[in-house]
């Protein structure tokens, strides 16, 4: 009996190291297609920063109007939370998106990509997208959880 050979794993450095040390590594198994707009996996060492589910409302709890505007605000809110811990978008290792309508997400991919790059740049962590029946805030269209690792 032969044992199947496990796929080789490529570990890709994210852009440059900073004064805080090496950044997260993108995990890309060899032979797998390169994902667009996310990573298959990430590895990092350091201080872990997590957010709760972040929705697209402002500091006065006014919800942005519409899906795309809510995503813009939610991503901006995440960036602010990260900054409170001394983290930056390139420290993100995971985002989990909860949407009430996956078709609404898919119909807006191009605009969402532009918004993402404005807020977080071109660093793409591991991501998951989950469609849910509804969110706690009834008018919310999206909620995003984030995990970041600040290098030691």
Protein described:
There is one protein chain. The chain has 152 residues and is α+β, with helices and mostly antiparallel strands. Helix 1 packs parallel to helix 3 (109-120). Helices cover 24% and strands 28% of the residues. The protein is globular, with a radius of gyration of 17 Å. The chain contains three helices and eight strands. The strands form two sheets. Strands 4, 5, 6, 7 and 8 form a five-stranded mixed sheet that branches.
The gross shape turns out to be globular
Specify the number of helices.
Answer: 3
On the 0 to 100 scale, the average pLDDT is 88
Secondary-structure class? alpha+beta
How big is the Rg? 17 Å
- Bin the helical content: 10-25%
- Low-confidence spans: pLDDT under 50, at least 5 residues? 1-18
Distance between the termini: 45 Å
- Tally of strands: 8
Main sheet: strands, sense, barrel: 5 strands, mixed
The secondary-structure element order is EEEEEHEHHEE
Question: What portion of the residues fall into strands of 2 or more residues?
Answer: 25-35%
């Amino acid at each position: 009996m032969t044992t199947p050979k496990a796929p080789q794993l490529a570990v890709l450095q994210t852009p440059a190291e900073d004064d805080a040390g090496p950044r997260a590594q993108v995990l890309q198994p060899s032979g797998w297609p390169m994902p667009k707009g996310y990573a298959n996996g990430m590895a990092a060492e350091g201080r872990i920063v997590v957010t709760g589910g972040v929705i697209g409302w402002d500091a006065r709890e006014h919800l942005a109007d519409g899906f795309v505007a809510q995503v813009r605000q939610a991503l901006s809110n995440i960036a602010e939370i990260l900054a409170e811990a001394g983290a930056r978008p390139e420290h993100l290792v995971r985002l989990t998106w909860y949407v009430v309508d996956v078709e609404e997400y898919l119909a807006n991919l191009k605009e969402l990509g532009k918004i993402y790059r404005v807020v977080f740049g071109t660093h793409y962590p591991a991501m998951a997208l989950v469609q849910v029946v509804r969110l706690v805030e009834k008018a919310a269209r999206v909620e995003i959880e984030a995990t970041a690792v600040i290098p030691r």
